Amino acid sequence: xxxxxxxxxxxxxxxxxxxxxxxxxxxxxxxxxxxxxxxxxxxxxxxxxxxxxxxxxxxxxxxxxxxxxxxxxxxxxxxxxxxxxxxxxxxxxxxxxxxxxxxxxxxxxxxxxxxxxxxxxxxxxxxxxxxxxxxxxxxxxxxxxxxxxxxxxxxxxxxxxxxxxxxxxxxxxxxxxxxxxxxxxxxxxxxxxxxxxxxxxxxxxxxxxxxxxxxxxxxxxxxxxxxxxxxxxxxxxxxxxxxxxxxxxxxxxxxxxxxxxxxxxxxxxxxxxxxxxxxxxxxxxxxxxxxxxxxxxxxxxxxxxxxxxxxxxxxxxxxxxxxxxxxxxxxxxxxxxxxxxxxxxxxxxxxxxxxxxxxxxxxxxxxxxxxxxxxxxxxxxxxxxxxxxxxxxx
Length: 394
Ligand code: FAS
Ligand code: PHB
Description:
With 394 residues, this protein is an alpha+beta fold.
């Protein structure tokens, strides 16, 4: 079959890209390894920047988000004996929005299905061909076992960290940098009302803890653990004990309840460049991974697509190559800003090293709380910089 844009991956990046291209009158085909239900069930990100919400509204996929998302003015930073609110809205004029990635993925899939989007789920042996020609294609085996081929004008890898698309860039042309952290996150979803109005990021001698949420009835927590940690070694009681210890504050109590899901999530920073090779473009986790401490992963995927969709529209509808030629450099500026911020938040908040390291971390935390300029720097990065070009003047 033929299409204009072949998209590998039906996560937020792939789905949002197909929606934005459709609004520009450009047809696409999505090829996804998992089932639609599996994609929708993956519990991942929870925070949307206001720039992401604005884009989702413009894309016509934010109706439910506008009804259900919880607007937050900021976050709390905590260390033993101190919990201090950082007011992003006061510091930057922006808020952030609590809206689970599972909800956003469901919204995007519903809009695409209603639009009649052609998507192949449960595809196997997906491969990219002739990316460096003007007749790229992808081949795969569909859910019925039939061999398929999609000829396109452009292929976009939205296939996440483990996807194959980046491999279609010749090794000699591809640079990859990666940082593995000496810790992981134990993620917990619990049927219990949040014990806080906004997220709490807590430094503790035992390790980092985060109190997030999904709704007024469901809370989301994370505990810093060793990367080798096995979820079987973490009973619900042990999880609640450790969360209560790390989030403890005089006069405050952590409410507990049934745990719905728990898993150990690896942490890494990863960037592959370039994000374009011939008629192959990469967007989202296919090109970069950030540790979730800065709540950037999903927002960065959205920002890539916000730049890529108009670039492909200019290329395929208007015959203008400039934006597509600039895509990789433009996207990577924000990728590195978000990568630095995620690394900075991670190294400031996660217990590692010795007492010297601990004092450096506590000094950094106090500086952020005591200095309006230091607080504004965190707020601007967390609440999100303007998409496409606002992240730096370089
Ligand atoms: P995705 O990984 O969401 O989507 C890629 C899609 O490609 C998947 O559906 C996959 O099945 C498909 N695919 C892979 N290989 C394929 C193949 N060979 N053929 C066809 N399809 C293929 N971000 C935050 O901001 N906060 C968080 O707390 C957070 N937690 C996370 C926890 C985990 C376990 C993971 C993995 C990520 C987390 N993230 C978090 C980041 C996450 O939200 C991503 O940034 C976001 O999903 C990026 O969206 P996509 O780029 O669409 O990639
Ligand atoms: C989440 O709610 O899943 C979440 C929130 C903030 C983060 C990471 C994850 O930094």
